[in-house]
Design brief:
Elements lengths: L8 E2 H8 L3 H9 L7 E2 L5 E3 L1 H15 L4 H8 L5 H32 L3 H11 L3 H16 L6 H9 L10 H14 L2 H19 L8 H16 L7 H18 L5 H13 L3 H14 L8 H13 L3
Antiparallel strand pairs: 1-3, 2-3
Helix pairs in contact: 5-6, 5-9, 6-9, 7-10, 9-14, 11-12, 11-15, 13-15
Length: 313
């Protein structure tokens, strides 16, 4: 024992200072992680202030579930505490995300009274990686638009708006994700979307390169929406004025003559796009991406179609 032995702590005092058990301190000492500074004449282990600090660091790291091998490397200076903290924080983030998703799945099951099959499907979906989940929609786009010279703006829209299950998904978003996956895997729906892609390709082959026409679609929704709100019947005289306004917009957008052939062409476009599952697809995408809820355009385009038919000779 040396002259500073009075500043050394026996293992019991060290246990009180660190909150670790005597057994744990002996374990760390025997493993060479925090060896005793010296021993008393009777052979008892003694520890200095540096050992106290090392033990407190060991306790903190172990409470964070950092393995002993990594703890040993930190104490030996083989890796920095900052590097370990960053790696562990990243690992914890993955665990937290998984726990949040599991919580959302259980809440969704509780809310809807899901069957065992539905619960199993939801559990499988949330445990897929982000890349695996994205693959579902990528495969849908590839299958329906692949090999077809459809509107490239539509393909880009589908890919750029591809939804992901949020890190803190709500039960409603878990349900939306499950429904979306089932929808894009439905062969009948895929066939319907494929027919739309083929129609777009035929239009492009005929010279149509006009894009997505968001402004025109919004004009139809607003104009027909006002007619619906006013109670205007699609076969009425007032409806003819509404149709005339809209066909004029189509003629300008597509560079076509505003005549009966244009009306027939618009009807054809409406009929090709008339699938409520497409609307449902975009509503589910909106729910997953956190967009405002999308209204059902079905009544608007149904009224427009009826008004076009009523006005034809």
């Amino acid at each position: 024992m040396g002259m500073d032995d009075e500043n050394l702590l026996p293992i019991g005092a060290l246990a009180e200072r660190t909150g670790l058990s005597v057994k744990a301190i002996r374990f760390y000492s025997d493993k060479g992680i925090v060896p005793a500074t010296s021993h008393s004449p009777a052979g008892y282990r003694l520890y200095d202030v540096a050992a106290l600090a090392r033990l407190e660091l060991v306790r903190t790291l172990r409470e964070l579930d950092i393995d002993l091998a990594t703890v040993r490397r930190v104490l030996a200076g083989e890796t920095s505490l900052a590097e370990v903290a960053a790696a562990h924080a990243a690992a914890l983030e993955v665990q937290i995300r998984a726990l949040r998703l599991r919580r959302s799945v259980l809440a969704a099951v509780a809310n809807r009274g899901a069957t065992p099959r539905e619960m199993d499907l939801m559990h499988k979906l949330v445990n897929l990686s982000d890349a695996e989940r994205r693959r579902f929609v990528h495969d849908f786009v590839d299958d329906t638009f692949g090999g077809v010279d459809a509107n490239p703006a539509m393909v880009e829209l589908l890919r750029s708006t591809m939804p992901e299950l949020p890190e803190d998904a709500t039960p409603a978003q878990v349900e939306a994700w499950m429904e979306l996956v089932e929808l894009v895997q439905d062969n009948d729906f895929r066939d319907a979307v494929r027919r739309m892609a083929e129609y777009q390709a035929a239009q492009r082959a005929d010279g149509d390169t006009t894009g997505l026409h968001h402004d025109l679609t919004e004009t139809v929704r607003e104009t027909v929406g006002r007619a619906l709100a006013a109670g205007i019947a699609p076969d009425s005289v007032q409806a003819r004025a509404v149709v005339a306004t809209l066909t004029a917009g189509y003629a300008r957008t597509f560079g076509k003559a505003d005549d009966d052939r244009l009306k027939a062409w618009i009807l054809e476009r409406l009929e090709v796009a008339d699938d409520p599952r497409v609307t449902r697809y975009w509503q589910l995408v909106a729910a997953l991406n956190g967009w405002p809820p999308l209204p059902d355009p079905g009544p608007v385009f149904a009224w427009f179609g009826q008004a076009l038919r009523a006005g034809r000779p």
